[in-house]
Amino acid sequence: MTAAEMIITNAKVLTMDEGRPRSEALAFGGGRILAVGGRAEVEALAGPGCRVVDAGGRTLLPGFVESHLHLVLGGNELAQLQLGGVQGFEELARLFRAYAAKNPTLPLLMAQGAAYELLEHPVTRADLDRVIADRPIAMMAPDHHTVWANTAALRAAGLLQGAEMPPGHVVVMGADGMATGELLEFEAFSPVLALTGDLHLQLGIATGGEPDPWPDAAQRAKDKEKVAAGLAHCAMHGITSMVNMDGNRYTCVLLKEMEAEGRLTARVKVPFHFKPHMDLSDLDRASAMAAEFTGDWVTSGFVKMFMDGVVDSRTAYMLHPYPGTTETGAPLFEAERFKDVCREISRRDLQIAVHAIGDGAVRQTIDGYEAAGRPDLRHRIEHIELIDRADVPRLGALGITASVQPPHPPGAMDFPMSTMDHVFHRERWRDAYLTKTLADHGAHLAFASDWPVTDVSVMRGIQAALTRVPYEGCQDERVGLMEVLRAYTAGGAWAAHREGLTGTLRAGMAADLVLIDGDIEAIPAERLGKTGIALTIAGGRVTHDPEGMAGGPA
Question: Alpha helices, DSSP H only, in 37-85?
Fold first, then answer.
């Protein structure tokens, strides 16, 4: 029998295991949970060399499963200028100029988190030229679907005179025949991001392709440092498993190399990104990735697609026009073509995850999954920011997972309420950002942040889920604490086909654990976001231990 390496006792253990939902102590060894039970029975397993951690009544949970993030992009962006919460030209200019002074050699000064409402008018290259004119600068919207660039950046990227783009990707042009500086969707702003020299890290979301030439060992070492930064950031927030919603084989190779080096501190699932221009035969690459990456730490086995864009730029596909316009956005896949794609992916026994934000995109995605007829594959829809009521029961009936983000509803966390008036008719607010209604109709829930779109903090996400105020005249879309915790643990594991490995605390499961710095059931909901993580353990390895409770990270 495997010897216990660590016992965590005097804890409020919430196992997410319906057979034994609560306990007091847990023992693990060899990367697996050996026992969950009362203090006396578990403490009796302590032998020579076993570390016993007194949790002091803190809550012990399965390690959090982050069901939708962008690990490599997030890690890469940690060193860039952060504009979250910034309003007005003066503050924007002050921060950019200070960042420029500290980084005199960067080929592009890139900022993240620029609110659509940052200025009192739509941002143009002229505004950014007033900030800095003699160096290329650009800033990304929080949703990562819009970039604004100054003239120097547009010129360096070859976009100042405009450029032909695939449907749904736009270099916005002005009346003077020149680019305004606003770039909508990945293909439009990729030439600007390429100025950083990191475009190969964007390929998994931008094109679905692989870097060519293949990065050498020195470049891979640099890239792995960015991944490591992202992993450490996630470990601070109790995350032990994640679904990386962009990627390619190169992403998997980096992660496998890190696993071999002992540097991979979370389980990562990586998709093949299928783009509208691809042929069905390109799915051979998806099948090859699924066959090559099958371990407990790095896996593939699913295909990611985008059906539409985002509401702020009106690229999300709606059934009805946006307020005050005739615009509905457009789907990125033609309806019958999408059904064929879904059938082929399902024939290969691969899961599908589709970004669908507008109610038109959600309906077309559901139609594709229905045509595929494979509920056992647990196809999922990412975001679902607006849905027609007729489509609500279809998710549960077809076994579709609602992969939604508690930080995303305007007013719930960081996104302003003003978005609601701009993009949704008031009578449709009742159909926006549904959670409880979807669950009540049988949809499986998996919660996430979409980091770096929003803060990856799970505790802030839990607070947002529990304290969200119903929109005026609308139903309360909150679910209870246990349902929230399940969606961040067992629900996420199930949605990723990982329920046999992680997501619950019971003997034989992976020792993926998070110790909350307090009793999560006693902390007022409005204070959960400021509650820390006392301990994160992934596969029996300590990955975050700020107070040295378990002897520090391995």
Answer: 39-43, 71-77
Cα 105 from Cα 147, distance rounded (Å): 22
Q: Is the dihedral of CA 240, 241, 244, 245 positive or negative?
A: negative
Q: Is residue 303 within 8 Å of residue 290, measured between CB atoms?
A: no
- The bridge status of strand 6-9 relative to strand 51-54 is parallel
String of DSSP letters for 106-137? -SSEEEE---TTSSSS---HHHHHHH-SSS-E
Tokens 């490591």 correspond to 228
Could you tell me the two tokens for 386? 């607006």
Give the integer Cα–Cα distance in Å for 513 and 405: 22
Q: Which pLDDT band holds residue 356 (cuts at 50, 70, 90)?
A: very high
Pairing of strands 12-14, 22-23: antiparallel
Tokens of 305: 């697609």
Render pLDDT for 485-499 as a digit per residue (tens, 0 to 9). Answer: 999 999 999 999 999
Residue-wise pLDDT tens digits, 193-222: 999 988 899 899 888 999 999 999 999 999
Joined together, the tokens standing for residue 341 give 């794609």
pLDDT tens column, 382-420: 999 999 999 999 999 999 999 999 999 999 999 989 889
Nearest-angstrom CA–CA distance, 282 and 275 = 10
> For residue 369, which of 350, 390, 388 has the smallest C-alpha distance?
350
Residue 199: both structure tokens together: 């475009």
Which domains does the chain possess? 6-63+506-544 (2.30.40.10), 108-196 (3.10.310.70), 210-495 (3.20.20.140)
Q: Which residue has the tokens 């450029």?
A: 163
Q: What is the pLDDT of residue 384?
A: 98
Give me the half-sphere count of Cα atoms (radius 13 Å) on the Cβ side of residue 150. 19
The torsion region of residue 473 among left (phi > 0), alpha (psi -120 to 50) and beta comes to left
